[in-house]
């Protein structure tokens, strides 16, 4: 089941998500949420199970994910109660008629 984002991004918003290849099967995903206390990412690569992101600097959040190159559907859970899609990223319709973000994982 794909979670449907239900609320707008928290004040301060997010910058588009960046994905940087660490190895053939790992990628570092990073984004900015200035006012977030917690951020977790969930996607189709792990049946929408939440993966907590860690703060890397004042407002930057990061997570290492086991992803090969490709395009993956995902959403973020912010402050443990706000499903959101970061502004400025590509989106797709989810299985419930809502929107999910698309994570584009480079091959290099």
From the structure above, extract its key features.
108 residues; mainly beta; 6-stranded antiparallel beta sheet; 4-stranded antiparallel beta sheet; 10 strands; globular
List the helices and strands and how they pair.
Elements: E1 18-23, E2 26-32, E3 39-43, E4 51-52, E5 54-55, E6 60-65, E7 70-78, E8 82-84, E9 91-93, E10 99-105
Antiparallel strand pairs: 1-2, 2-6, 3-4, 3-7, 5-6, 7-8, 7-10, 9-10
Summarize the structure.
The protein is mostly beta strands.
Strand content: over 45%
- The helix content, as a percent range, equals under 10%
- Order of secondary-structure elements: EEEEEEEEEE
Query: What is the radius of gyration computed over CA atoms, rounded to a whole number of angstroms?
Result: 13 Å
Low-confidence stretches: 1-15
Content-based structural category: mainly beta
Distance between the termini: 30 Å
């Amino acid at each position: 089941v794909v979670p449907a984002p239900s609320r707008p991004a928290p004040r301060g918003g997010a910058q588009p998500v960046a994905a940087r290849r660490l190895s053939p099967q790992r990628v570092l995903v990073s984004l900015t949420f200035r006012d977030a206390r917690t951020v977790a990412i969930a996607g189709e690569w792990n049946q929408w199970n939440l993966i907590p992101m860690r703060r890397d600097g004042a407002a930057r959040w990061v997570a290492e994910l086991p992803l090969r190159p490709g395009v993956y559907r995902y959403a973020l859970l912010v402050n443990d109660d706000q499903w959101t899609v970061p502004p400025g990223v590509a989106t797709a319709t989810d299985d419930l008629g809502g929107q999910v973000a698309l994570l584009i994982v480079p091959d290099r």
